[in-house]
Specification:
The chain has 383 residues and is mainly beta. The chain has 3 helices and 19 strands. The protein has helices at 161-171, 217-226, 234-241, and strands at 10-14, 22-31, 34-42, 49-57, 72-73, 76-80, 82-89, 104-110, 120-123, 127-130, 145-148, 152-155, 194-197, 200-203, 306-312, 334-337, 353-356, 365-366, 370-372. 44% of the residues are buried.
Length: 383
């Protein structure tokens, strides 16, 4: 006998995103102990990714306090436009019995990282091990150092095309206007980044919420200077990727590279830690909120695009710099971290280090920002 008895299932839909995007043709049915939901996402851009969430009310919509923990199918992060989306859920496996006639289901559709303003996460500083604790990295991830980091904030998302475009319009130039890096180019055109049309820089259509790419280190620095931010140091970046310095291999809080959680090139990977039952291959950057965050609420520190750091690159960690290290005073290349959609699982590890000349740019290189902050309401360290 089915556990569903006299149940009335309705849908109340909210869409707190672009008005031209809608959830349509929603149907629901039950079979045995499973609820099946079908829907279409209509409008918007085919390349955009959405967060689709499901909530349940047991009191006719007065409150939605049942949050399915284990729904499957087209639910969660990275859901694309299209027809015949499917969700299936087995409530009894979560100890939830749906009996009655006042149950209402609600689907929520949103685009994460679409705010024009930079969103920050506050991090309480501490001492952690900088470098490769798994001993499967490269020579420049050594030696392992105990490093102290002060409190700081880091942006929740990579800086988007919309945010960098707005900066360029306010700044009035695509070259650094004054100071040490005067006349250095800040941005170059990219089909999935910014385009220069009619004397203004605008996001490519449909890529507004994607990470800005084609940006030089000088451009990232001037963006930071203009808004009183700064680039994260390499040590700060790793501390955040390791969820306050824990021994974690990837920026999603896991020691396994799951292509449903990290945007990397699965085809290039030959790693025993991979989840080999999955074969998702992105092949391109995705919007900044398309993949799940780590436990601190920071998105895509592993994969999607490389991220500029403040430091000049040096080929080994300096054991003399263990308190808020910032790298050498001078150098030829700047550090980039995190790997990209074009890299293997090995290259998107938290301790992977690479570099690029500050005047150079790439189709898979962007940045996020940081700022010093006296944290008053600190996050509890997750055990």
């Amino acid at each position: 006998m089915s556990f569903l008895k006299c149940i009335s299932i309705l849908f109340f839909i909210t869409s707190p995103i672009l008005s031209q995007t809608s959830l349509l043709n929603i149907t629901v049915r039950s079979s045995e102990d499973t609820i099946f939901i079908n829907y279409d996402i209509y409008g918007g851009y085919t390349q955009e990714s959405y967060l689709v969430e499901c909530e349940v009310s047991r009191d006719g919509g007065a409150s939605f306090n049942i949050l399915p923990r284990l729904p499957q199918g087209d639910v969660g992060y990275g859901i694309k436009n299209g027809d015949d989306k499917k969700i299936w859920w087995e409530p009894l496996k979560e100890g939830i019995e749906l009996v009655g006639d006042k149950f209402i289901f609600r689907l929520k559709l949103s685009v994460l990282g679409s705010s024009p303003n930079v969103e920050f996460v506050q991090l309480k500083g501490s001492t952690f091990n900088l470098g490769d604790e798994f001993q499967d990295g490269y020579f420049d991830e050594k030696p392992l150092l105990s490093v102290k980091i002060d409190d700081f904030e880091i942006s929740k998302f990579e800086i988007t095309n919309t945010q960098f475009s707005s900066f360029l319009k306010s700044y009035g130039s695509d070259k650094v206007k004054n100071g040490e890096y005067e006349d250095e180019m800040m941005i170059y055109e990219n089909d999935k980044g910014l385009k220069y049309l009619q004397r203004t820089w605008n996001p490519s259509v449909g890529y507004e919420n994607f990470p800005v790419v084609g940006v030089t280190w000088y451009g990232a620095m001037e963006f930071c200077k203009y808004f009183h931010y700064r680039l994260p140091t390499e040590a700060e970046w790793e501390y955040a990727a390791k969820e306050l310095g824990k021994k974690i291999k990837y920026g999603n809080g896991s020691d396994i590279a799951n292509p449903r959680e990290i945007n990397f090139n699965y085809n290039k990977s030959n790693d025993s830690t991979l989840n080999n039952t999955l074969s998702t291959i992105s092949g391109t950057q995705q919007s900044v909120g398309a993949y799940p965050p780590n436990i601190l609420g920071i998105f895509q520190m592993s994969g999607n695009v490389w991220e500029w750091c403040l430091d000049w690159y040096e080929s080994a960690h300096n054991p003399e710099k263990t308190v808020n290290p910032t790298g050498p005073w001078l150098g030829k290349y700047k550090v980039i971290r995190g790997g990209s959609f074009n890299n293997s699982a090995q290259a998107v590890r938290n301790t992977e280090r690479s570099f690029l000349a500050p005047h150079r740019y790439a189709k898979d290189d962007g940045f996020r920002v940081a700022r010093s902050f006296p944290v008053q309401m600190v996050q509890e360290e997750v055990k």
